[in-house]
Write a structure and sequence with these properties.
Helix content of chain B: 10-25%
CATH topology of chain A: TIM Barrel
Order of helices and strands of chain A: EEEEEEHEHEHEHEEEEEHEHEHH
Helix content of chain A: 25-40%
Number of domains of chain A: 1
Oligomer: heterodimer
Shape of chain B: globular
Distance between the termini of chain A: 31 Å
Number of strands of chain B: 15
Strand order of the largest sheet of chain B: 10-9-8-7-11-12-15
Largest sheet of chain B: 7 strands, mixed
CATH class of chain A: Alpha Beta
Number of domains of chain B: 3
Strand order of the largest sheet of chain A: 3-4-7-8-9-10-15-16
Order of helices and strands of chain B: EEHEEEHEEHEHEEHEHEEEHE
Number of strands of chain A: 16
CATH superfamily of the largest domain in chain B: Nucleotide-binding domain of ferredoxin-NADP reductase (FNR) module
Radius of gyration of chain A: 18 Å
Structural class of chain A: alpha/beta
Shape of chain A: globular
Amino acid sequence: MADLEIDLGFLKLKNPVIAASGTFGYGLEFEPYLALDKLGGFVVKGLYFDPREGNPPPRLVETPSGLINAIGLQGVGVRAFSEKVLPRLRGYGTAVIVNVCGADDDEYVSVVEFLEKQDGIAAYELNISCPNVKQDGACPALSPEPTFKLIRRIKAAARRPVITKLSPNVTNIVEIAQAAEEAGTDGISLVNTFLAMAVDIETRRPRLANVFGGLSGPAIRPIALRMVYQVASRARVPVIGMGGIMTGGDAVEFLMAGAAAVEVGTANFVDPDACVRIIREIDDWCGAHAVDRIRNIIGTLRTPREA
Amino acid sequence: MAIDRSARVLTALSWGDYHLLGIETAALGRTARPGQFVMVKVSPAPFPLLRRPLSVHDAGPSGIELFFKVTGVGMDILARKRPGDTVDLLGPLGKGFTVTAELRGKRACLVGGGRGIAPLYFLGRELKVAGAQVTVLYGGRTIQDLPLRGKFETAGLPLLCATDDGSFGFKGLVTESLERFLEREPADVLFACGPDPMMRTVSEHAGRRRIPCEFSLESMMGCGIGACWGCVHRIRDEGGDGWVKICEEGPVFRRDRIMWTE
């Protein structure tokens, strides 16, 4: 058994595997399938201040090795979450990270202010990158200024560490990451889903009621990996990488590319115990490669440039 | 619920695009109830990526049966399974039909269209065990869409078939056949599963005649366990209405809770 512990500086994880927001419900849905305390952590489904209705169906369409979703962040709101869900998550001995949403900057701040009064939260993941809630996938993470401004306000309101989740739907991901860093984010997670669509050629209609959705799954992994590498190569804060990770080997790719931890998303849909399997596979990989400590492989990619 | 990663296929029957698999899986078979579903992983490769939801066609202590129609690449892979092959099953999931002792002596009418017949076999058997008088209405476009007709009869479940082209049984829609049936023999309870337009019409008949009714809804599902929020339907509750997860609160809903949108 290798030492899988990861220290993000602001948060210690027992292993590098975190279940990604929007794919893990509020955590409790997965209790029948895995022991939550085996995870490095999990990020609960994105929370707005009030309950949110979400988009009409169809909300999902499967594409080659991928899934396009346009759920529209349906959820119970921060109050119901704090009263009904959070008390049941305490005492699991794993990092509970809350994904924070808002229709505008004020709402993000309200959500954080409300959560600051609750116990049992390890960190916030600032969801500035959901492509499914505004026209044409608009969100703060598409340009540096709104990203900077929002994180500044959140950092002023939050005692707890803030991880900013970036969108891949940008020309220059590094520029956005730098804006997040300058605004004081404690960590960066990427990528959220890629803005995408699919067409039903029989009905000549889009397959999603929302027309656009976010593409996830193995189909996006190589692009996500490239973006994580670009950001991690320059970032001063820890980077959490994600995008189509299905196996321990996939996770190791992201770690080598510079991610200090990974999030696992769509894989949870296919196998509700995927995170635990991936942790085991990372451990197996360490065993097979004489790696004592997983942290020693972070950012160890050997590139021709550096050789 | 359980995950059985290597449930063994024991029997495989085919009728054109329709297929019936008998699968050995005590873990799922023991606890499955009529109207519940399983999520089937058809391939270990990342394509097709997601599990497919299929309602439990029949279940017993040693396993389950799945009845399905090939509608795409996922079901096509499943249709190629042969005895001895294994499948990866997650289930049983969701909330099924209401089968209680109160149905003893009651007249239950089951309406299935096409592959929507799948959950009604298990339901019919269990209703019979509960002492209900069961009649099954089974509809399809042609006789080719009614491959299970012999199976229902063998199980002692009275069957009325309807085909659009009249190639077998009543010529017309299964809902027209239902209307005639209800004129002759009032039913105490209705259960239905099939295409949306069929279920809507069944709902209208049930409403007009004030017959309690349950529907099994179908949806594309991301996970089947309530995590993705992808399979919602408009459902009424005491507090109003909203998008409710079919996998978690359904797939079976009482008629008065379902709002037919579009």
